[in-house]
Amino acid sequence: MSSSLAAEIPWPPTVEDFFLPPIVEGTTPWFTKVTLLVWVAVAALIIFFLVTYREPKLVPTKRQWIAESIYGFVRNNVARDLIGHDGVRFAPYLTTLFCFVLLTNLFGIIPGIQMSPNSHIAFPAILAIISWVLFNAVGIRQHGFAKYMKNSLIPPAPWFILPLLVPIEFISTFVFRPFTLAVRLFANMFAGHMILLVFTLGGFVMLQSNVWLAPVSVVSWLMAIALTFLEALVIVLQAYVFTVLTASYVQGALAEEH
Amino acid sequence: MYLFAAEGAEEHNPIIPLWQEIVVGTIAFALLCYVLMKFVFPRMEKTFQARVEAIEGGIKRAEAAQAEANQLLEQYRAQLAEARTDAARIRDDARADAEGIRQDVLAKAREESDRIIAAGKEQLAAERATIVRDLRAEVGTLAVDLASKIVGESLADEARRKGTVERFLSDLESTGAR
């Protein structure tokens, strides 16, 4: 009884629920639902921006205005506010980053898709590595390697505490920053998907095990819907946080003093 | 777990990325970055710039128009003031001219009247002289006639008579001229 039920409904949800069966047999790691979704996101963003910005006008059309608002939001509220006037040159990358993370996150709650590529750590890891390379390159170009290292590693503190501070600074700046960027995004998407699985599948499991639990199943599904809205918030927030943190790392690298 | 093992599926560790996904993700994201950062966002910056320039240009144009209008107004005011002084000057000139003409006319009139008076006087004098001459002859004759009637033939002597009358008339004239 219990084993047949388990065969019908995969319970409890596991990591393997994130690695779906292949779309075409034999192509699995290269061509899966997740990699397909990445391509879809890239194509959708390229098409959206190229179509809305095919003929830019001084007085924007509605669609042009939407595209400009997205760029303007990241440009003014993230790049310029965090990095300063100099930050506008990073706005194109930051906007690309923001749009990509936001759309791939959104796939997690779009009905019929409900799987975010960012719940596979490979994609947040790529973005985090790019951010890491970006802020270090910017810092080295701005100050030169030695001065950048000095700025990053040696805080203004008494000399006798430096042996303790320098390794901490090194690890926090050069190791933990990319790691936390990647893991934060990945874990949020992973956990969000897991929670939705728990409440949705849990409802079915309870319904099948005992008819008297049906009202509780309904509550469970309602919870799943409510948590989907929470997910929507998390999705936007995580895309924003990833972008803001990248911008703030760039700002830190550009700053004169520690 | 037992089930997956039975199906022959490999275990996945969620924190270890699949290298194939890293490759796919890198290519896909690089493509996205290339297209958006090369073809879209720089054009947006250009549009923003153009918009700023359009607005600033509009303000500048408005300012220029305002300045020109002010300048024109000043110019018109200056011209108006100039015209007013011109008008005043012309009026004064006209008044002065009129006065001059009046003086001229008066002077001419006075001259004319003087001339007429002088001519009259001259004529009068000439007539008087004629009359006096006539009278003198007549008075002489009358006096001789009268004296002849009173005295008779005794004074008929030509020479004497002439001298006496002349003397008488000269006396008369010298007393009568006063």
TrEMBL record, chain A:
TM region(s), chain numbering: 30-53, 90-113, 119-138, 159-179, 185-207, 219-241
Entry-linked PROSITE patterns: ATPASE_A (PS00449)
Major site of localization recorded for this protein: membrane
Stored InterPro entries: ATP_synth_F0_asu, ATP_synth_F0_asu_AS, ATP_synth_F0_asu_bact/mt, F0_ATP_A_sf
UniProt membrane topology term: Multi-pass membrane protein
Lineage: superkingdom: Bacteria
Keywords from the UniProt entry: ATP synthesis, Cell membrane, CF(0), Hydrogen ion transport, Ion transport, Membrane, Transmembrane, Transmembrane helix, Transport
Keyword Transmembrane: yes
Gene3D superfamilies named among the record's database cross-references: ATP synthase, F0 complex, subunit A
Compartments it resides in: Cell membrane; Membrane
PANTHER family in the cross-refs: ATP SYNTHASE SUBUNIT A
Family to which the UniProt record says this protein belongs: Belongs to the ATPase A chain family.
HAMAP family, alphabetized: ATP_synth_a_bact
Family annotation (NCBIfam families): ATP_synt_6_or_A
Function: Key component of the proton channel; it plays a direct role in the translocation of protons across the membrane.
Descriptive protein name: ATP synthase subunit a
From TrEMBL, chain B:
Coiled-coil region(s): 55-93
Broad class of where this protein is predominantly found: membrane
Compartment(s) where it occurs, according to its Swiss-Prot or TrEMBL record: Cell membrane
Listed transmembrane segments: 22-41
Family matches, as CDD domains: ATP-synt_Fo_b
Keywords: ATP synthesis, Cell membrane, CF(0), Coiled coil, Hydrogen ion transport, Ion transport, Membrane, Transmembrane, Transmembrane helix, Transport
Keyword NADP applies: no
Key word Repeat present: no
Entry-linked InterPro entries: ATP_synth_B-like_membr_sf, ATP_synth_b/b'su_bac/chlpt, ATP_synth_F0_bsu_bac, ATP_synthase_B_chain
Membrane topology: Single-pass membrane protein
Subunit architecture: F-type ATPases have 2 components, F(1) - the catalytic core - and F(0) - the membrane proton channel. F(1) has five subunits: alpha(3), beta(3), gamma(1), delta(1), epsilon(1). F(0) has three main subunits: a(1), b(2) and c(10-14). The alpha and beta chains form an alternating ring which encloses part of the gamma chain. F(1) is attached to F(0) by a central stalk formed by the gamma and epsilon chains, while a peripheral stalk is formed by the delta and b chains.
Family per similarity comment: Belongs to the ATPase B chain family.
Function: Component of the F(0) channel, it forms part of the peripheral stalk, linking F(1) to F(0).
Name by which UniProt lists this protein: ATP synthase subunit b
Organism for this UniProt entry: Phytohabitans maris
